[in-house]
Amino acid sequence: MTATATDTELKARHRAMWASGDYPRMVDSFLTPLGPRLVEACGVTAGDRVLDVAAGTGNAALPAAARGARVTASDLTPELLADGRRRAEAAGLELEWTEADAEHLPFDDASYDVVMSAIGVMFAPHHQESADELVRVCRPGGRIGLLSWTPEGMIGKLFATMKPFMAPPPPGAQPPPLWGGEEHLRGLFGGRVDWSSLDRGTLKVTAFPGRHEFARHFTSCYGPTIAARANAARDGREQQLDDALDAFVDEWDRGTPGAARYEMEYLLAVGTRR
């Protein structure tokens, strides 16, 4: 599938968004458990040919490689791949790192035993194109595994909170948290994947004792929030967004004063490619 000039421009904006802030710091702060959970659910074993799509810093790719799999980590953002390479080198792991668009993967048909993505492919703007590519590069009988934030969970609601401050989405783009809905997922993959599990889980976050410290973590580290704040700044609404984020983390705190606790719901989907 060939990318158009408009698509190339859109992906350049996405690449810049994810390179802004400090996403590796977010991984280290609270996202690290998600990668191993996906790898375990996919049943990755030594010798498997594994593709991690929208791999970021390798949160799922690295534990897959540690199991002895032959792993390719692909991502649109070279800065995140560079961080992943450093992590792999520090851990003594060998992986292939490839800059790639999830909607136009540069890999052969049916070339992987396991195709997976942990809160990654869900952020590609055109969901059907991405789903088609995941199926295409997975061999018949191979496994497809996805871990995605749910629309009803905390991160799904974070995007709803930020929406009034974000630039209008391009034509055809769909909201990322839709990937965390069972019916949306079934619709994307049609009868091409037999889902063996569609399970909801929770990531518990206790790394930020102060609620508003957590909000500032998003505005300083998380690309989508940084982009929303930059857009809000164009008409002087930065403080409105900051206030909305403070109210949001107040609402979602499940802890006690001085010991904030957040629960982020995700959908863990694993199936066999027909």
UniProtKB/TrEMBL annotation:
One biological-process term from Gene Ontology? methylation
Q: Spell out the molecular function terms from Gene Ontology.
A: methyltransferase activity
Which branch of life, at top level?
Bacteria
Keyword vocabulary terms for this entry: Methyltransferase, Transferase
Describe the location of the Methyltransferase domain by residue ranges: 50-142
Q: What is the protein name stated in its UniProt record?
A: SAM-dependent methyltransferase
Q: Which organism is it from?
A: Modestobacter versicolor
